[in-house]
Amino acid sequence: MVIQQRFGLSLVALSCLALTACDHNDDNEPAPVPPADVSYSYEVTVQNITQGQPLSPVGVALHGDAVMWEVGMPASAALEVLAEGGDNSDFTASEGVMASASGAGPIAPGSSETITVTVINEPDTFISVATMLVNTNDAFAGVTGHALGELEVNQSMTMVLPVLDAGTEANSEVAGTIPGPADGGEGYNAERDDADLVSFHPGVVSAQDGLKMSVLTAAHRFDNPAVKLTITRVE
């Protein structure tokens, strides 16, 4: 009986040793290392190639596979605010935007500005860029839903941007309706009194070309394109 008891105790002791050894081995296993974050940074250079149309501070947004406007469809409220008053804050904060940036100020004719925007762990991102031609009622230039996934570091893409009409405000050109230096009038107005569809802009008429109540002159006319855009991946 004594022998049986000692044998049982020996088994218990061996079991404890085995458990201790197992626990010790678990503690020595290295913890999994999470993958490092990868930054995707882009320099967005916007050049104003009009004769007499300052551009509002540029709005840049990185997002998934979607568009922020479409020709033939109504403008969003955020685009309306940008196209009528030059304020890009709602545009860059739109639903689905992963990263955004704003230009520092207006871009004069012939001038340019470079804006940097960065997104983390999103290699297949899309970009939208928009800016108002401020000596108009609701004209803007931009591109939306342009894929950046194929850009390698130090590679660039260049494009020219047409002028679009947000379709949210009539192109009356009358005093008090244009926010730019040609008038200093009202910017955004929530009332929509035009076709309510985004379209290609027909251009300004001006007083010199027969629109007697217009505050614009021939210097404010523009041809398409109005903006040269260069996007460079820098990281």
UniProtKB/TrEMBL annotation:
Keyword field: Signal
Q: Start and end of every Spondin domain?
A: 63-170
Q: Which domain of life is it from?
A: Bacteria
Endpoints of the signal sequence: 1-20
> What InterPro entries does its record include?
Spondin_N, Spondin_N_sf
Name assigned to this protein: Spondin domain-containing protein
Taxonomy-wise, where does this protein's organism fall, top ranks first? Bacteria, Pseudomonadati, Pseudomonadota, Gammaproteobacteria, Alteromonadales
